[in-house]
Amino acid sequence: xxxxSIHSTRSSTSSETIFEVEDITVEFGMDRGTSRVVDNVxxxxxxxxxxxxxxxxxxxxxxxxxxxxxxxEEPGQVTGTVTYYPEDGEPVDVLDLDEKALRTFRWEEVxxxxxxxxxxxxxxxxxxxxxxxxxxxxxxxxxxxMEHARELxxxxxxxxxxxxxxxxxxxxxxxxxxxxxxxxxVLKPDVIVMDEPTGALDLLMQRxxxxxxxxxxxxxxxxxxxxTHDLPLIADLADxxxxxxxxxxxxxxxxxxxxxxxxxxxxxxxxKAVPNTMTPLEEMAPIEGDSPDPVSVPQGCSYHPRCPxxxxxxxxxxxxxxxxxxxxxxxxxxxxxxxxxxxxxxxGPNEH
Amino acid sequence: xxxxxxxxxxxxxxxxxxxxITFVLYRMMPNGPIExxxxxxxxxxxxxxxxxxxxxxxxxxAIRTGIDPNTPMHVAYYEYMRDIIxxxxxxxxxxxxxxxxxxxxxxxPWTVLVSVYGILIGFTTNIILGAVMAYYEGSIxxxxxxxxxxxxxxxxxxxxxxxxxxxxxxxxxxxxxxxRMYPDSTAGFNWYYIQGVIHHxxxxxxxxxxxxxxxxALSMRGNCIRVMGSNYLRVARLRGLxxxxxxxxxxxxxxxxPLYTQFMIGLAGIFSGSIIMEQIFTYPGVGWYTYDAxxxxxxxxxxxxxxxxxxxxVVGVLIADLTYGLIDPRANTGxxxxx
Lengths: 352, 339
Ligand code: SF4
Known about the structure:
The complex is a heterodimer. Chain A is of the alpha/beta class.
């Protein structure tokens, strides 16, 4: 059996690990049973890469992202280990940090840009104070930090004087989103987790923000984890793509390969639902069937109720990861046959 | 600036209308003060077996109410307005035989003392209680306090006042049963006098605190819970801000803001509550004189008080409105957020 762990999968462009996630499970106790919203997930994130995490809403991708900052809110229970490898210094066991260390770790090492940019700022405080209080809370040099903040805002095509003097409600959604990105970078973190950073924006704004993110990535060499339900959105941005289904990863590999020759039937179905990369996923015909309930995930391969290739083996055994090539892996017994079973065509910018 | 000017104009106009209404009530109310006095004098004359002399009666009415029934209405209205606006002359109190303005002017500080402290203490306790309830949301303390707040909120304040008076003053003698100061104290800046003032004001203040008690706490609790669940609070925590800063600058400010207008309007409500309150505590403030004026049919005083309460309400709402923009940046941008 050519079953391997997802750990062995490496992108060919870089090799240094910045985050190592092992056997992460997130559970919520509920009246009708335990809701497992991240199911025993492992992966490595490499320094300086942009990795896209793709999945339908409710697939566990936001929860997965929260574990990287140990930011899963009560009463969620996280098990497993998350190891962070700083540029220099000892590896950090993130889930084991005490409150004080965690406070420093967040935003200084790993910052987060959340889904609700429109609701990320204190409505009764001007933007400048948001920057300043962050610098002060981390004991940073405020003047130098504000200098950097102005640079960042300018790079994001915002007028620093106008934005810093404004209150949140005076900025448009796109401006708030870019301001939040600047705020996340003000302490010069090594990693940024972006959870649906363009969710509330219109299509044009979404594309321009991903363009800006690419620029920042190039300029500051930050590692970016980009979480989205919109596969085509990150097609040109991400180095690698990880597809999440039913609270675990089902396919991981270099972006181009995943898009061009998707191996997992679910990834293929996602791409089939999007005939054109300029069309957002939610406007497309959805994949048939329902996404699984976190309280009772199907036995065997969790995708089998919706999968056209499903066999009795799939219904009984969890497939585990199968290497597609050296850089890519898919959690499917029959990935070799998926191309024939689910066909899709890509158009637009991905047609290299 | 335009908005401020407009609001100011609206307030002035409101007061103008109120004063006009008092005039209309005063002059034209069926069985109003003039008619009532005329009838009274006529029946008095008849009782004495005399023939009522209308011109004499009208003269008497004019002296006692400050209104000459023979003056044409529009002239009377003009004079009424002129006296109030230019000379702060609300006429002569019948019962006290003193200018209405003077009576109110001496009574006012006492009512302000009791009301302002009442609402300040009440508001502060409610805010703190609401915040603590929100912090321990779902706990026994939270549930218990919610029930207590609802119960207290539905007990009329005057019932509370009477209970306080009965037990704390009459039964146990902890507080005086009435008055504003120790009878043997001399007004001025001396401790005995101040102590007396505090001692006498304590029960009325305590009862004022009960007005609206619970209601504000419950609103505060709801606001806190809403803010604590907001995304900006999560981001603030991720940014590593201290708990103190989050509590004050994030939760506190955003939760108290919507209560601010309620607070200013409540100020006016407490003044009107003083009518019964001061009666119960025999506390000669504006409310006490109001009741007195009602009983004595002291119409000039009554009208003066009506205007006085209106001014306080209008000014309170005006201040709330004008300062809201200073404390909530969203209010300044034209489209107001609906709370
Ligand atoms: S393992 Fe079986 S059910 Fe699961 S995706 Fe592959 S073919 Fe479909």
